[in-house]
Design goal:
The protein is α+β, with helices and mostly antiparallel strands. It has 14 helices and 13 strands. A 5-stranded mixed beta sheet has the order 9-10-11-12-13, covered by helices on one side. The chain has a 3-stranded mixed beta sheet with strand order 1-7-8. The chain has a 3-stranded antiparallel beta sheet with strand order 2-4-3. Helix 5 packs antiparallel against helix 7 and helix 10 crosses helix 11. The protein starts with 7 loop residues before the first strand and ends in a 9-residue tail after the last strand.
């Protein structure tokens, strides 16, 4: 087989570029609030929202990994008071800069077409009547939660397909843009009319489908550094894989992007797209600091598990739904990064009533030496995580340092 004539990035270059685009190559400093926090989220594109709170919720951990000074109230102010952010779907529930809201109209339109018939069939004649009823109630009396509507309807403790009609109407109206999440009570979404949540300048801006496809592809590639067309489509989950593929073909012909090969962990090469200027400036990308960081399992640098394995040789999955006896590691285990390497995973939990962060186990990756310096950095990070989770002390289970699996 003939050797490829495409430019190549070494695995070290690819890792460095990817981590730089995800805000993990610079020393983590900054106020972590107001404009500084907005800039962090804008660079990432979004932060995924998740309810699990063994140490802190995912969105807070993502931001704290890049800004140690970050406090949870800082995100709340940007989201609920200043309206610089809004909550909706990317690949999952996420907090997104409000300046991008107008591009979500494409998703609203497509979700409406996709959901209207299916959900109408689900709840029959009740469904469309409930849409008007719920909208009128919110318009007349203000924000609601799913618990405060449909009080007289049959409810179930089952999964999402057991939603009562008013809950279904709320979700439909949110997913199609008529309602927005104005705040959360605890972790429960509170809905209001979009016109009362999203500033007019972002709400009324119109884009054609072609404009949003172009924006979604360009902005995804900028935040990933390099990507396949499938990875570009998956980033915002706004456009289809075929739309991303067509965009890449056109952009390649126009010279907007170029194709290269990146070296994966283990020596294989993978074709990806990037901007020519990214390739030209690759040597200027900084080395990540050698500090240890504990990341959320939903950190954007790790969200694509297959890509993380290709780039870092790190195979990771969440074992929440794995029966305890069959878990390899634990219920909710956090990846540990040092420099540009994922060096292990750690099982820990904040016991706030006892004022302690309990470390149950740390599993180093194969080939990671358990040096004094490395453990000193890990323990410093654990002390930071304890403070962030509202605890004063770090406690360790006996034999907490395990053998590589």
């Amino acid at each position: 087989m003939a050797a490829s004539s495409l430019p190549r990035l070494s695995n070290a270059q690819a890792r460095r570029l990817f981590l730089h685009k995800h805000g993990l190559c610079l020393h983590p400093k900054g106020s972590g609030k107001s404009e500084d926090l907005s800039a962090v989220i804008g660079q990432l594109g979004f932060v995924q929202v998740d309810s699990i709170n063994t140490v802190a919720r995912a969105h807070h951990m993502i931001l704290a990994a890049r800004r140690p000074a970050y406090k949870e109230k800082n995100l709340k102010l940007l989201l609920e008071r200043d309206r610089h952010l809004f909550e909706h779907w990317t690949h999952d529930a996420a907090i997104i800069p409000t300046e991008f809201f107008s591009h979500w109209q494409l998703r609203f339109n497509r979700d409406r077409e996709k959901l209207i018939q299916r959900w109408r069939n689900w709840h029959q004649n009740e469904f469309e009547a409930k849409l008007d009823e719920v909208l009128k109630r919110i318009s007349d009396t203000g924000p609601v939660t799913s618990a405060s509507v449909g009080e007289d309807e049959t409810r179930s403790s089952g999964g999402w397909w057991e939603w009562h009609p008013s809950k279904t109407a709320l979700e439909f109206l949110w997913r199609t843009g008529a309602l927005s999440v104005c705040r959360r009570n605890g972790f429960q979404k509170v809905y209001d009319l979009t016109e009362r949540v999203i500033p007019e300048e972002h709400r009324t801006r119109d884009h054609s489908a072609e404009e949003t496809i172009d924006w979604a592809a360009r902005s995804a590639l900028d935040r990933l550094g390099f990507a396949t067309s499938g990875e570009i489509a998956a980033f915002w989950d706004l456009i289809s894989p075929q739309e991303a593929k067509d965009w890449c073909q056109d952009a390649l012909q126009e010279g907007l992007i170029t194709e290269v090969e990146i070296e994966c962990e283990g020596g294989a090469f993978r074709k990806v797209f990037l901007y020519p200027e990214t390739l030209e400036n690759i040597e200027e990308v900084p080395e990540p600091p050698s500090r240890v960081r504990i990341l959320s399992p939903f950190d954007p640098a790790l969200r694509d598990r297959k890509r993380a394995e290709r780039l870092f040789g790190f195979s990771y999955r969440i074992e929440i739904f794995v029966p305890e006896a069959k878990r390899q590691y634990g219920y909710y285990v956090f990846p540990v990064m040092e420099g540009d390497r994922l060096i292990g995973r750690i099982d820990m939990k904040a016991h706030r009533s006892d004022d302690r962060l309990q470390v149950r186990a740390f599993w180093p990756e194969r080939g990671v030496r358990s040096s004094k310096g490395r453990f000193s950095k890990l323990e410093a990070e654990l002390c930071r995580m304890a403070r962030f989770s509202g605890c004063s002390n770090v406690c360790f289970d006996k034999d907490w340092v395990r053998e590589a699996v």
